[in-house]
Amino acid sequence: MPHRVRLARSAVDEIERLPGHVRQRVRRLVDALAGDPRPARAKELRGRPGRYRIPLEDWRVIYDVDDRDSVVLILTVRRKRGPETYADLA
């Protein structure tokens, strides 16, 4: 059964501010997560079970997977800047 994809309000705003070519790729990636929430290039964040990141050029799509409710929640889309990229995630 496919997962439902939801976007946090902050993620919607971040996606809208992305450069056009990146924005289109992020949207396609987000749509694809409904069918496969853990693609081969997704990596689980250390110490945060159920939270994943997918690299896309210099950007990272960070999201949670809830298999019980079949939901993928896109938390943020950020430029990779080192460990602080993930530091303030709730």
Main attributes?
alpha+beta, five-stranded mixed β-sheet, YaeB-like fold, 32% strand, 90 residues
CATH superfamily: RelE-like
Q: List the total number of helices.
A: 3
In total, the number of domains comes to 1
The termini sit apart by 28 Å
DSSP, total strands: 5
Would you kindly provide a written description of the structure presented here, covering whatever features stand out?
The protein has one domain (4-77): RelE-like (YaeB-like fold). Helix content is 29%, strand content 32%. It has helices spanning 9-17, 20-32, 84-87, and strands at 4-7, 43-44, 51-56, 59-66, 71-79. A five-stranded mixed beta sheet has the order 1-5-4-3-2. The N and C termini lie far apart (28 Å).
A few lines on this structure:
It contains three helices and five strands; from the N terminus they run E-H-H-E-E-E-E-H.
What's the SSE blueprint?
Layout: E1 4-7, H1 9-17, H2 20-32, E2 43-44, E3 51-56, E4 59-66, E5 71-79, H3 84-87
Parallel strand pairs: 1-5
Antiparallel strand pairs: 2-3, 3-4, 4-5
